[in-house]
Amino acid sequence: MAMRFLTLVGVFVCGLLTFVGAVNIEGRIYLPAATDDEAPMSPFQVVLDGGVRSTLSTADGHFVFHDVVPGRYTVDVYTPLYMFSQFKVDISADENIRVLEFKYPGTGKLPVSHPLVVEAHGKIQYFQPRERLSIMDLVRNPSFLALVVPIVMVWLLPKLSEGMMDPEEYKRAQDEMGTSDPQQMLRGIFGGAEAKDAEDRKNGREGMLENVSPRKRRLEERVKSGKRSKKTVTLNHTTAKPLSDKRSLELAAEFIDHDVSSLYKVIHKQTGALGGNAAGGAIYGEITKNSMGRILEYMQEHCELGRDSVFLDIGSGLGKPNFHASLAPGVAVSYGIELEDQRWQLSLSNLQGVLKTFALYSKINPVIFTHGDITDAKTLEPFSHVYSFDVGFPPTVMAHVANCFNQSASANFFISFHPPRKVLEQYGFKVEELGRLPTSMAGSKEGHLVYFYRKIKRKADTEDKRVDPLFGVGFQVVQEGHDAVLSWVEEQVAKRFNQGRTRRQVQMAKAATPTSLREKKLETFYKVVRRGALSAKAK
């Protein structure tokens, strides 16, 4: 019994100590639209410390939080209609209450008294009223100013010039321009009647004289009567001066560079930036556009390359050197021969795309690509300039090209990537070196030196130039014009990609193809060690 009594006494004492240290936080809410403080208002939710405790305000706006222990708290009023400040309340152990008010986020704190006076800053606006049409907004519009200001200036400037210009000079300016009165032109623009004949113009001028000053009237009369000598004005008709030779060459070079860039864009669109399909075949390389341009410029200056030249590219690949030479300097015929069938097909695709481009059709000179082996040629007639990216050519092929070059009367210049030691001593070309240039490869950016050679003993050119049988088909087609070349290219593409032939028809077509036009295997150029021989030796 005694133990139960002591427990009740302890609980009572603890509760009493708790209530002794607790205080009440109270305040009142005021609305800005309320004209009568005693008018009832809807209850607002007042939250203590972010939602730990909450209460509702009464009809007169009062609210109370009972028995709040010492500490720091925040007091907020939650409502979607009005905007209220946030209050921070600090209750000390001796029941002293300090309050700080924050009107808006980011503003300074303002000390206030307790009980709290919570005033609404204003009603929250969720909708913005639509703006109405204003004349001032229309006037301030830049488009309106750009339209009105020129019209005002056209109307105002003639009136200002009428008072500032001397009548004699005004008359002289009219005679020089050979036009009618500007005032009459303006009246015609803005709806005024225009003088129909000389009598109307005379009446209009007399009416103008009535409104001018006496001094201006006297000057106008002197001009009409001829009392003052009238100075004759002679117009110096300047003729356009022709461009100098240097400037003409610069402009021509700019146009050619533009055409060459357009040409390379068409090629990139047809077969890609690099192309080639060099897998399984001989070494393949592409010179960049700038390097090829430098090579052709050097050939024009030192190798007599011009519009009468016949250009040959051995191993033409995609045909970029041939296309470039047909534009700059525009050789008579640009011929390319290729051993690999896939690369030849790509060159035909490029030729088809170039000839179907309207901007290049009339500017490009005759170009043709054929499929064949240069070792089947006996001479290099009728070519005057022979170019070849021969870095990977076998020595036997180079020796055969040298023999054909030496026997050809028309072939006088040879452009190779082999140094003079190989060209002169190993392969047997009867030439002399003219110069060399550094070049770079497309894609890999590798550098190679290109060498320019000239035949030592040049034979006299004959009017009757014979064509080697290996190049006969190409010359027969190219001499008939671009349309014939385009038809021939489309025919070759159709033959290669015809899907309707049977296997026996394909075999018969291959058998009917001349041996010189067939694709040769890799073993004919390089010595290949077969796996069977190695396994036999190992055993």
TrEMBL record:
Keywords carried by this UniProt record: Membrane, Signal, Transmembrane, Transmembrane helix
SUPFAM superfamilies: S-adenosyl-L-methionine-dependent methyltransferases (SSF53335), Starch-binding domain-like (SSF49452)
Gene Ontology molecular function, alphabetical: carbohydrate binding; histone H3K79 methyltransferase activity
InterPro entries: Beta_sandwich_EMC7 (IPR019008), Carb-bd-like_fold (IPR013784), DOT1_dom (IPR025789), EMC7 (IPR039163), SAM-dependent_MTases_sf (IPR029063)
Occurrences of domain ER membrane protein complex subunit 7 beta-sandwich (ranges): 41-145
Signal peptide (residue range): 1-22
One Pfam family of this chain: DOT1
All copies of domain DOT1, residue ranges: 282-380
Record's bilayer topology term: Single-pass membrane protein
Composition bias type Basic and acidic residues, residue spans: 194-208
Compartmental location: Membrane
GO cellular component: EMC complex
Domain of life: Eukaryota
Region annotated Disordered, chain positions: 193-231
Similarity section: Belongs to the EMC7 family.
Protein name according to UniProt: DOT1 domain-containing protein
